[in-house]
Every structure is written in structure tokens, then in C-alpha cells.
Amino acid sequence: MNTSKAHRIALLFNANKSFDREVISGIAAYLGSTRAAWDLFLEEDFRLRLAGIENWQGDGIIADFDDPAVAAALSRCSVPVVAVGGSYSDEAEYPRGLPYVATDNFKLIKLARDHLIDVGLHRFAMFSLPKAKENRWAQERENAFRTLMEADKMEAPIFRGCETSASAWDESVEGQIAWLRSLPKPVGIIAVTDARARQLLQACIIAGIAVPEQVALIGIDNDPLVRMLTRIPLSSVIQGAQEMGRTAAHLLDQMLHGVRLSNTRILMPPAGINVFASSQHQAVRHPHVARARHFIRQYACQGIKTHQVAEYVGVSRSSLEAYFRQELGCSVHDVILQFKLDAAKAGLECGERSIADVALGCGFTSTQYMHLVFKRELGCTPRAYRDRALALETE
Predict the structure, then answer these.
(1) What gap in Å lies between CA 131 and CA 160, rounded to an integer?
(2) Where are the bilayer-spanning segments (predicted)?
């Protein structure tokens, strides 16, 4: 048993951000797997208390240095500090004299673009954030996108739009729709975060732009909350933020025991991609099939039937079935069921909803029917699928 005095550690992160929450989760995982005894100071509104943070009477700090106000406030700090943030192409952007754990922005964008290439797309664009000091990481992702596109001698269309606010919502959506309509189709779009991808997905639905037939979308963060808020499940690059948190905690633990780590820099590659319907582009020649799939993606989880899809498209049920067999080699019901299955998988991976709630929310007539579909299609029960997904997240 460790009887030494616990260290007082401040975590300066914004718990409203998915990335920051994942880093905090990684720090917690490190503490749970070691004998480190830390008393953690964490407040969601920490920026209100940044003044005087350099005089804090604790033992160490792990902080999100993507926020320039945090970096400035800690520049005069006397206790050990580990910085966490994004990678930069310009060496001068990194904090001096501090160990720094960074998400590799170039590899995040390359992985997203490679995925869009793999599904057969040849045109690409990016949806970013307005230029600001707080968004330096987004501008780095823009730079990575430009570099990759220039290497292939391709245009690199980037749209920043405006910040999210209730007063400017209509104007923001109109701007997104105008940009989407200006792009040659089909096109693969990388959004700098899942939140931005969700906004663009909504704009596509409002404008009647088929996702992913005309616009294939992929975000960054693998945020389960965002997946729950989209009609069409969103593909996303997994940043590896939990591993960043574990690494940052390990570095601080070493510093607390006298190890000197100034200017140590660790770049964390992405952990992979969670692929869902928003980026699963598949060229479809027949317009009735394309229109039907667009309708199915939006309403499959509401329990629609084949005859309702046919009514929406404006053809007979038998004709639509024939088109589907010819184009996709499966029935309309098969496509509806596959979409419901994908939505259920996304819901189970969140780990916050009961299996019964997931079944109901994804349009299955009963939990038993969803159980049957999972066993038949995936060879496991919904509970086993959820347990395996959550276990992978904590590894």
C-alpha cells in the first residue's frame, strides 16, 4: 500500500470539449493502473481562475496548450507542467522548456483523406473554423490538407464558415449550403471536428444533398455524443486522446520524482477510423436507387417499410426492388436493415444507453429482434458487442 503523501495536481482542460474529456479520461486510466496518488483539481470554468494560477500552491499541472490564454498564464509557473495540444509545422509554435504531448494533425488529415480515396472519391474539400488564436490547431489541419492536395497537384477548397451561435444560425447554414452547392460532385469533405461535420451534415439534409452519394463526410474526434445527434451516423478519425492523457500523466509522474524532461516532445498518431454511413460512398448509377438510399439513411430508424420508400421515390414497390437487385444485388429491406444495424452499433458503442433504448431508437420492433439480427449478421449478441467496444476504448 502506498502511504506517501498525495500530490496535488491541477488539470486545466475544458470539459465541454470532446478532445479534452478524452485526455482527462486517459489521465484517470493512468492513475487507475499505477500507484500514483494524486488529488486532482479540475473545474470546467477554469479560465475564470487563470489569473494568479502561477502562484498555485500545488505540485504539478497538466494543461491544454491549444488555448493561448492557458499557455500565457502558465509561462511563469514554478511547479512542473506538462503541456497537451496539437502538433505544429512551425517549431516556434511549441512551448519552450516544457514536455509536450501532441496529437499529430498531419496524420489525422492524411488518414481521413486516405479513407475517402479508398471509397473511390477523387475530389476533396475541408470544412474548418474561423481563423483565431484559439483555433490554431484547426489552421494546422488546413495546412496539412493543403500540403496533401498540392502534392497531388489538386485544388484544396477550404470553407471556414462562422462560429456557432443562435443569432447567426440561419446565416451560417445558408453559407454552408451555398458552399456545398458550389463544389463539383461527388466530393469527400473532411471536417476539422465532429461538431463541424455534424453541422455540415445537417446542411446537406436541409438542402437535399445526398450523403454520401454526392457528399461523403468524415469528422475528427470520434465523439459519441455527436453520433447520437445525427440522423446519418458520422464517420470519424479517432485522435488517440486517451493515450495522450496517459502519456502526459506518466511524464508528470516522472517529473514529480525528479526526472528532467524539458522540451520532450511526443507526437501521438491517430488510433484509427470509426467508419459509418456518412463516408461510405458507393457510386450508384440509377437515380431511383440513389434517391431511395438517401431517404432510407434519414428515416430507417423510424421504422420505415419498403412500400414507404417506393412512395417517396414515386415508383412501384416491385420496380424499386428490381432496381435495387440490379444496382446493389440486394433488396430494399436489406438496405434498411443494414442501416438500422449500423445505427445500433453506434448507439451501443456510446455505452450510455440501455440495449432496449438502442433497439427502440434504431427502429427495431423489439429487443429480441435486434438480438436475432446481431447474432445472424455479426455472430454476437448486442450486449457482447457493446462490452467488446467499451473494452477496446479502455485499452
Answers:
(1) 8
(2) none
Which residue, among 346, 350, 390, 383, has the nearest Cα to 367 in the 3D structure? 383
Alpha-carbon separation of residue 261 from 159, 168, 252, 253 (angstroms): 39, 46, 9, 11
pLDDT reported for residue 393: 64
- pLDDT at position 285, please? 74
All residues at 6 or more sequence positions from 305 whose CB lies less than 8 Å from its CB, including other chains:
336
Look at residue 80 in the predicted model and tell me its pLDDT. Answer: 92
Instruction: Write out pLDDT tens, residues 243-299.
Output: 999 999 999 999 999 899 888 999 999 999 999 889 988 777 788 888 888 888 888
Exposed, middle or buried by CB within 10 Å (0-12, 13-18, 19+), for 163? Answer: exposed
Burial (CB < 10 A; 0-12, 13-18, 19+), residue 90, is: exposed
Cell for 339?
Answer: 442501416
Q: Nearest CA to 263 among 31, 21, 81, 126?
A: 81
- Name the one residue in this structure whose C-alpha cell is 500530490: 7
Which ranges of the chain have pLDDT less than 50?
1-2
Give the domain 7-103+240-269 fold.
Answer: Rossmann fold (3.40.50)
CATH superfamily of 287-385: Homeodomain-like (1.10.10.60)
Judge contact between 26 and 243, C-beta under 8 A. Answer: yes
Residues of the chain with CATH 3.40.50.2300: 7-103+240-269, 105-239+275-279
- pTM of the shown model: 0.77
Q: Which residues pair with 215 in a beta bridge?
A: 187
pLDDT score at 388 = 87
Contact criterion met (CB below 8 Å) for 82 and 101? yes
CA distance 388 to 383: 9
In this prediction, residue 298 carries a pLDDT of 81
pLDDT in the model for residue 1? 42
CA atoms of 299 and 142, how far apart (whole Å): 34
Contact 113, 124 (CB under 8 A): yes
